[in-house]
Design a protein that fits this description.
Blueprint (H helix, E strand, L loop, with lengths): L13 H12 L4 E5 L2 E5 L4 H16 L7 E5 L2 E3 L7 E2 L3 E5 L6 E3 L2 E2 L4 E7 L4 H14 L4 E6 L4 E9 L2 E8 L4 E3 L9 E3 H7 L6
Parallel strand pairs: 4-8, 9-10
Antiparallel strand pairs: 1-2, 3-6, 4-5, 6-9, 7-8, 10-11, 11-12, 13-14
Helix pairs in contact: 2-4
């Protein structure tokens, strides 16, 4: 469902109205408002999608897509940083009752998000800087970044203000166990994830 099909009129929300127009004119693009600025991301490349699919597997295998929580791609997260701010993480782990926390414009209250995950694309600076501030400000407990540009996987925990108190970086060859607070034990093989996200040489 496109954002334009949302029933509420956005006449009093000029940035959201413009973001929705951009989504309608650019199918497949991701349009977000972060820090009061509209950000338009191109469609994912194949390796980005492959990495994302590979990342879902450990969450599903751990039973996190069930009665207590849901693993969802591309769901909107309402941000407290501005009256119209919202982000669309690549992958989110939410409480199963997240539909009770709907706000508007296909976005949900951050209170129901346990984890958000981003796989970097050409606009990697947004994922490793602006969105870190946004997700910390929204008090998302765990934020994972697959940095394909620098071949690292980052795990950020304990949001405080507009940053995370704990930030660990992992390299290929390491295996990461995510915090148990997400609801189950999830381990990620950094090398395998980064390999699946590699672009082919041209």
């Amino acid at each position: 469902m496109s954002a334009a099909s949302v029933e509420r009129s956005h006449g009093d929300r000029p940035w959201i109205a413009e973001a929705n127009r951009l989504m309608d004119r650019n199918p497949g693009y991701r349009v977000e408002i972060v820090g009061g600025r509209i950000r338009v991301s191109p469609p994912r490349d194949g390796p980005h999608g492959a990495a994302l699919t590979d990342l879902m597997v450990p969450f599903l295998s751990a039973g996190l897509h069930g009665a207590e929580s849901k693993v969802v791609q591309g769901i909107g997260l309402w941000l407290p940083s501005g009256v119209e701010d919202y982000a669309i993480p690549d992958l989110s782990l939410l409480d199963a009752d997240h539909r009770d926390h709907y706000i508007e414009n296909n976005c949900y209250d951050p209170v129901c998000f346990r984890l958000v995950l981003e796989v970097t694309s050409s606009n990697w600076k947004t994922d490793v800087r602006n969105k870190v501030k946004a997700y910390a400000g929204a008090k998302i407990p765990v934020h994972v970044i697959v940095d394909r540009k620098h071949q690292r996987l980052h795990v950020l925990t304990d949001p405080a203000g507009d940053d995370y108190e704990n930030h660990r970086s992992y390299s290929p060859g390491e295996v990461v166990t995510l915090p148990a607070a997400i609801g189950a034990e999830v381990t990620l093989d950094v090398g395998e994830i980064l390999k699946s996200g590699e672009k082919s040489a041209t």
